[in-house]
Amino acid sequence: MIGIIFLPRNHVDFPVVGKEYRIFEPQWKQVILLWLGRDIVSDKKEEFIRELVKFEDGVRGFYGYQAYFFAAAGINEFKACSLAAEIVRQVVKWGFGYFNIEEQEWQTFLELIRKGARKVIPETIRPLAITELIDILDHCQDEETRRQAAYSLGKIGQGNPQAIAALVKLIETTQNEHTRRQAAYSLGEIGQGNPQAIAALVKLIETTQDKFTRRQGAESLGEIDPGNPQAIAALLKLIETTKYEDTWKQAVESWEIDSGNPQAIAALDKEIKTILDECTWKQAAESLGKIDPGNPQAIAALLKLIETTQNEETWWHTAESLGKIGQGNPQAIAALLMLKLIETTPNKHTRWNVARSLGEIGQGNLQAIAALVKVIETTQDESTRIPAAYSLGEIGQGNLQAIAALVKLIETTQDEDTR
Predict the structure, then answer these.
(1) Alpha-carbon distance 17 to 29, whole Å?
(2) Taking the CB of residue 54, how many other CB atoms lie within 10 A of it?
(3) 249/244 Cα distance (integer angstroms)
């Protein structure tokens, strides 16, 4: 069948010079897969898959592997194929290796073969692939291979109890922190709402001494069920006890998708009052603003940071944060105006962020409009005038002063981007 439709007429287990092999052309793949998924006589589809599996090319398997990988994708449309389990098993073997009994060691294949096999795994019958990947985790002692298998499970095992259980087991049994982190990452990909996954990540956060593993555990926990009481308790404890700023930040970030959580709000509110590190302070305030928009404590913390810091980068980051959480807040607007950062700072990033933030929080505010108009009229720096003009358009609807300033800018500027 393959020879009739997709191969040169005189192909006999060897490439024909100058002839195209349409079966390996990308545009034909979807056509063939659609045919395999049609409700037609299974014998024809079985024959097609069988020919792909035994395809001979005479060039050390170059086309042979491609044909086999094609078969692996094809059986996902024709799951009744008698060769399905065998095909998936072989593809996983090529992708991750096998234990050589004679040599008593784990052996792998050429990188090109490994990559091709791993690439097709998400396209084949996933339950069969999951079974084979779990077998790799159970029997392979090579940690790099186990990490790759755990990564693949994270890509294809969404909601699969067996895949989740295998990753939990890997977290509990491996002594390698890199492998444990990969398993935790993959759990974050596939373990949404799963009690076993949540419990494993909570335990990991509480017991590991590795700060990077703890951070990954916090991130994954925030991904799979940020509103879970057990997860919240674990993240609270992590914030209260960790000595590492990046781990603390990750725990905070894990809450940002759980808007309005009262425990998270209370914890961050408390922490803002005690933090000395500027970057962490800003992170806490911004996160608090995300889960509780307009929170006065968060806005006050950012205002205090603007008033006290001498760090230019902190200024422009904080201005950006105020723009995100301080909509309509007079204090936030006043702080940005009083500092006159947009008029005086030589740092273009700070000017840009202050102008943009005024556009986000200063809707209808006459002081904010006047400040932006002044910037447009007095500065010659286009990198400042552009965000100022954009923000003025956002907050000055119907304001004659704003309209006049923008019209004048269009008439006088020579910069096309500004115009």
Answers:
(1) 22
(2) 11
(3) 9
Q: Where are the domains of the chain?
A: 260-419
Convert the pLDDT of each residue in 287-313 to its tens digit. 555 555 666 766 776 777 777 777 766
Question: φ and ψ at 19, to 5 degrees?
Answer: -105, 145
More confidently predicted of 196 and 394: 196
One CATH from 1.25.10.10, 3.30.420.150, 1.10.3720.10, 3.90.1170.50 for 260-419: 1.25.10.10
Segment 136-159 mean pLDDT:
96
Arithmetic mean of pLDDT, 19-29 = 70
Element (H, E) at 99: strand 98-100
Please return the burial class of 343, using the count of CB atoms within 10 Å of its CB with bins 0-12, 13-18 and 19+.
Answer: middle
Residue 276 to residues 191, 264, 271: CA-CA distances in angstroms?
Answer: 36, 20, 10
- pLDDT tens digits along 315-324: 666 766 776 6
Q: Cβ distance 205 to 198 under 8 Å?
A: no
